[in-house]
Amino acid sequence: MSTANREAPGTGAAPLGRQVPAAAKLVHFIGHQLQLQVRAVIGWSLALGLYTAAMVAIFPSFSDLENLTAAIPEGMREGLGITDIGTIEGFLSAEAFSIVTPLALAFFPMLSLSAVIAGAEERGTIDVLFSNPLPRWLVVVGSFLAVAISLLAVVVIIGLLMWSTALLVGVDLDFSDAAAAVLNLWPLCMFFGSLALLCSAIFHRRLFGIAIPGVLLLGMYLLDVIGNLSEDLEDARVLSVFHHYGSAIEEGIDGSGFAGITCFAVLFVILAVAAFHRRDIYT
Question: Among 11-15, 71-75, 274-278, which stretch is predicted with the lowest mean pLDDT?
């Protein structure tokens, strides 16, 4: 069944004899998708924003900050890349931005983008999605951009909750460090989200769009941790996206790492467009 010349709901059909520009369709499609993601944005923002805010709030309660880092086993410090949790930047890096927040937030774009094609097929709504003329590439690119914008909103809210809490409890957290920490989450999460989109375009089951990026997420994280501990695997860390992710709250955003991860995310989207263009649709 060919669906290459159908359009998604909410995009609007052009009046007879009038051709709607692809750019206008794309903008309208993105706007429609953003409306559908409002509740998810609020949920993820509050869940992770309140968590990071809580970490900031409890930081002043530690009475012996000088010996706090030394109390952590050396192997654990090396594996997790912990430097000095006696500072608010080091504390947040260890408690929020090294493990919990990136691993959890990556599932926001993964869950959203895995549902774009394979998820619509499983729900039996793919025919509704293409009920009017709309290029397949526009569905893929528009969905990616909508989730990218939504994720940006999530990380901004997380950053504002974290920084405002620091102001309230009297913790000296620089705004630029807080901004770098949350913005650095964006390419990392979109890397796995765009991979989920590619899997959704290749496979007919949404499960693969979640499982494959999820396993790779965990595998890359473990590779980076073990590579920190083992000299034999140290060189292999370059294969992990977490190695290029770094610790922006302590060292600032690594421009080359940020750009490199983003380029891979864009590459996955291009491959998703090509895969979706060639595949048959189950309705």
Answer: 11-15
